Amino acid sequence: MIPLQAIRSLLVIIGLVVSGWPFTSTNGQDHARAVWKTTRVLDAPEAHQAAAATDRFIFAIASKSIAKYDRATGERLATSTGEAQHLNSGFLYEGKLFCAHSNYPQTPERSEIKVLDVETMRLSTFKDFGNYGGSLTWAVRHADHWWCNFARYGTDNSQTFLVEFDDQWRELRRWTYPSQVIGQIGVMSLSGGVWKDGSLLVTDHDHPMLYQVALPSEGGELKYLQTHTAPFTGQGIALDPATGGLVGIHRAKRQILFAEREPQ
User: Fold this and answer.
1) Among 16, 120, 198, 241, which is 20 to 30 Å from 57 by CA?
2) Taking the C-alpha atoms of 245, 113, 236 and 160 in order, what is their torsion angle to the nearest 10 degrees?
3) What residues contact 156, with CB distance under 8 A and at least 6 apart?
4) Tell me: the pLDDT tens digits for 105-164?
5) Distance of CA 74 to the CA centre of its chain
6) Are strands 223-229 and 209-214 parallel, antiparallel or unpaired?
7) SS3 190
8) Which domains are assigned to the chain?
9) Burial label, 247 (beta-carbon count in 10 A; 0-12, 13-18, 19+)
């Protein structure tokens, strides 16, 4: 017979787990969620796919165009020219804005990186991948290489993959995402990603979450670290050089959001 006190202790433990009480997993990661809070909001009709920022300007990315705003005043300064069909997240590098671009939802899938000259606001093609096996949703520069995410959707979204390219666009490595991420995103896929403090923060299509993953020591699947609560409703995110935080969007409200992580 199990002692009554042992049964009571077991019930307490079960209650804590069910209620979401923080605990540490076997891989040492704290399951208490990190939280990102909004610090500024900017209304922008073009805030449909992503946002990016410099110390002086804010960029609102829509499917077919990009708008440049004055960071200090919030005034819209210019809109891009040049053809685009489905722009996704943007990444600022060497004074230009590099945007993932695809022909989604058409098939066969074709992916490109578009580049915006932020002075002339002319949008052109930087890299054409053709059909690479998925729709390019984000591309960033890190550790002297390009890191590109090719999304798959529906029942195939577990096949979404991240590729590391060298400067000659030779594929070096690729990874899929862990079930702890794929299991939370429904039938859509991953829309944004940035390197921050040695790991990746990635977003999905419409949930207010950041999924933190890292490169594995071996194997072809990224390592899950934890899930963060964030004000962005999915879509593309970018680093904010002025605050050290992040910039993203609230798609339904057509807003650009600035966020910083709360101390834990």
Assistant:
1) 198
2) -120
3) none
4) 999 999 999 999 999 999 999 999 999 999 999 999 999 999 999 999 999 999 999 999
5) 24
6) antiparallel
7) strand
8) 26-261 (2.120.10.30)
9) buried
